[in-house]
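Exercise 3.2. Students should predict the tertiary structure of the chain below and write it as structure tokens, then compare their answer with the key that follows.

Predict this chain's 3D structure.
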Amino acid sequence: MGNSNVDGIIFDVDGTVWDSTPVVEEAWNRALMEAGHSERVTAARLKGLFGLPMDVIIRDILPDAPEEERVRFAPYCYKYEHEYLNRTGGVVYEGFGDMLRTLSDKYSLYVVSNCQAGYIELMLQKTGFGKYIKDHICFGDNDKLKAENIRIICERNNLKNPVYVGDTQMDADACIEAGVPIVFASYGFGSVKDPDYVIDSPMELVELFCR
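Answer key:
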């Protein structure tokens, strides 16, 4: 597959732009404690859950709680995650900013995630990457999963041949459903079977699409 006709690059967030799991571990464990739950989470466990919609993650963390209790718990997660990340941010993968700066001269750049509303905006503010991103959307904005939101980004920005950069099989499955090639960020959280492209570091995306 050639690269010359690519007209936009869409990014996942967690495991692709940054790793926020150590901060979110601390935030969510405070939320669990304050909400009266004995369950606790670890960064390692969160890496296996990130990419799923928030309601699915909470169901995994509180498998025995009634649904109304999970619904009641969600605002605690949002509150403390936003508070903790607003204070410290996640760890941006090395070279990601340089990669965005270089690619933005040639391509329009976007973000699509299954995260909650406000998370992409917080990431862009903490990293300073907002100036490179033309448009973004997430599950929390419209209750639509990643494949549909990839299609929405493509439609409202008139993208005909975009690629999506993500780090899990869930990302790859969404790309198959949306009809968009997947660039597997192997430095992230997961694995992908038979990706269209593979990068082992952010700057390899420059080599892939600017050569």
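Discussion points: Residues 21-88 form one domain. The chain has a mean pLDDT of 95.
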